[in-house]
Write a structure and sequence with these properties.
- This protein has 2 domains: 13-112 and 249-274, Udp-n-acetylmuramoylalanyl-d-glutamate--2,6- Diaminopimelate Ligase, Chain: A, domain 1 (3-Layer(aba) Sandwich), CATH 3.40.1390.30; 116-242, 3-Layer(aba) Sandwich (Udp-n-acetylmuramoylalanyl-d-glutamate--2,6- Diaminopimelate Ligase, Chain: A, domain 1), CATH 3.40.1390.
- The protein is built from 10 helices and 11 strands.
- It has helices at 13-23, 57-65, 90-100, 110-114, 119-127, 158-168, 200-205, 218-229, 244-249, 251-265; strands at 36-39, 48-52, 70-73, 104-107, 132-138, 141-157, 177-179, 185-195, 210-214, 238-242, 271-274.
- Helix 1 (13-23) packs across helix 10.
- Keywords: Metal-binding.
- Belongs to the GTP cyclohydrolase I type 2/NIF3 family.
- A divalent metal cation binds at residues 74-75, 113, 244, 248.
Length: 297
């Protein structure tokens, strides 16, 4: 009879941070960003990790009630400077809940956007792209950077690409919005998880047939369509607009697997799971039938 197996020791938070730095290096984050450790002692053991898009109260409650030692979110909690984390406000209450229950909070925002295998790579996989390149290469690492651009194995109608993405992302009130002829063939695809309407010049320069991103505001989207369909325009790129939350959620399962495997390679059996909470801020949407007959605009 073989002796009972000794459980692998839990890594300290400091070692988990080393692994995270290898996967999603902090030097890749944008200058305005605030990724990194928010709460937690470097020496505390980490046996259970929860991944989520947003460090909101319901996600923190899930982490605490589930006995997680670390909550890793995509969006920062304290992106802009604060002078107080008193618990009478929602961000302060979140900080207190985490600290009082010994749950560390780590955020990987634009460093996870830019890193290979990060957010935009997850959107690219959902779109069906194989080989891709950064849309905006990072100055310190040309293999990394914001957005991705690549080609589908063969052209597909715009509607088919949009439907493929709609099946891949979590359900949201936003759904998937599309600008362009639904039957137009598309092959070269640019993507950017999260808000990507600042990258239209790069999308056009990349010769993309369609741009898949999120949070497209009226004026940038309208101007992009005018430039595409106006004098001398090619009609491209078409636009596929996802929910901000949904586009970035696509990264979480891949990130959980990567973190789990990297820790296992160091001899640690850490439970790494993805939150089931939908933290998109919108609850429902109504179709707009327009004014009734005889009404005024």
């Amino acid at each position: 009879m073989s002796p009972p197996r000794t459980p692998a020791p839990a890594p300290a938070l400091a070692e988990v941070l080393e692994v995270v730095e290898q996967l999603w290096p902090l030097h890749l984050q944008e200058p305005w960003d605030a990724s990194g450790l928010v709460t937690g002692r470097p020496e505390q053991p980490v046996r259970r990790v929860l991944l989520a898009v947003d460090p909101v109260a319901e996600v923190v409650a899930e982490a605490v009630s589930g006995g997680h030692d670390l909550l890793l979110t995509h969006h920062p909690l304290l992106l802009r400077g604060v002078t107080s984390v008193a618990a009478d406000r929602f961000k302060g209450a979140v900080v207190h809940e985490l600290v009082e229950n010994r749950c560390a909070l780590l955020t990987c925002h634009t460093n996870a956007d830019s890193a290979p295998g990060g957010v935009s790579d997850a959107v690219a996989r959902a779109a069906g792209l194989t080989a891709t390149a950064p849309l905006v290469p990072h100055p310190a690492d040309p293999a990394a950077g914001l957005g991705r651009v690549g080609e589908l194995p063969e052209p597909v109608p715009l509607r088919e690409l949009a439907e493929r993405l709609a099946r891949a992302v979590p359900a949201t009130a936003h759904g998937v919005r599309v600008a362009g002829d639904p039957d137009a063939p598309v092959r070269r695809v640019a993507v950017c998880g999260g808000a990507g309407d600042s990258l239209f010049d790069e999308v056009r320069a990349a010769g993309a047939d369609v741009y898949v991103t999120a949070d497209l505001r009226h004026h940038p989207a309208s101007e992009a369509r005018e430039a595409a369909t106006g004098p001398g325009g090619s009609g491209l790129p078409h636009l596929v607009d996802l929910s901000h939350f949904a586009s970035e959620w696509l990264w979480l399962p891949a990130a959980a697997a990567a973190l789990r495997e990297a820790l296992a390679a160091r001899g640690h059996d850490v439970e790494v799971v993805v939150s089931a909470r939908r933290t998109d801020p919108w609850d429902f949407r109504l179709e707009t039938p327009g004014p009734t007959a005889g009404g005024t605009a």
